Amino acid sequence: MKLLNVRNSALGILALLLGAASMAQEFNMTVQVNVQNISQPDRTIFKTLETSLQEFINNTKWTETDFSDEERINGALIFVVTNFDNNRFQGNFQLSVSRPVYNSTYTSTIFNYKDNDINFEYIENAPFFYNDNQFESNITSLVTFYMYTILGLDADTFELKGGQRYHEEAQQIVNLAQSSRNIGWNPNDGNGLISRYRLNNDLLSETFKEYREIMYEYHIHGMDRFALNPKQVKQDLQGYIMKFEDLNSRRPNSLLQRTFFDAKADEILSIYSAGPSVNIAKFKESLQGLAPNQSTKWRSIKV
Prior knowledge:
This protein has helices at residues 10-18, 44-59, 138-156, 164-177, 196-204, 209-222, 230-241, 244-250, 255-271, 281-290, 295-300; strands at 27-34, 73-85, 88-100, 107-121.
């Protein structure tokens, strides 16, 4: 059993007493609980939830890997509350996470995702517990699922399938949460197309292998080398991204394909709108087919 109590973490106390650099946590996440749509006069519980979630994420030691301060994963989690009644919360999670790019001060967004099926009970000041062998609560499962998914995606950008163990940990959370009957954990949720189950299942499936291959090549062989030879990298990035054509031919407009372009559309637009000129006529045509919902951005790229 993993006990993740942010107020009384034995690991955190030990690290403080010993000054153990090896206990550096993995995340530097900002959490915001947005209650603009809620008329609840007493906002204390929302602020407590916001603080508790941020401490839970940032103060927990999620892995056995040592992270230095500059290696911590930066991001934001915005919980937009759409309904609140008797300690029951409904709303959506909006997550955005980036990783640094070598030889620059630039950070590249690797995950920009919205989960519309957030529903949980939270009692003010209750500690968070994560039991890797048993479902404890939906809020804990939600947060731990996304933290392990983000750890997996981040690791995938540094090593081919480097995040496998974290995606498998997220899979365990999915499996345990299915017994809770909360929405988002089961194969048929989200019409079988958009759910936490689908996100995790597709990440681990060979059917969608191009996504993780592209995440690795795009960052290690692309962005991390951009400062050294921008023209060559702009040409190489086209090849990496166009590998989605093989996936799109098998599974058109897949969740992972949309997830990639939701994170990368602005970056791609920026890359090909400035700097050394390269031939992108075929690339623009491909982008229109791969991510038609981003067509306004693709039209803005000058050939």
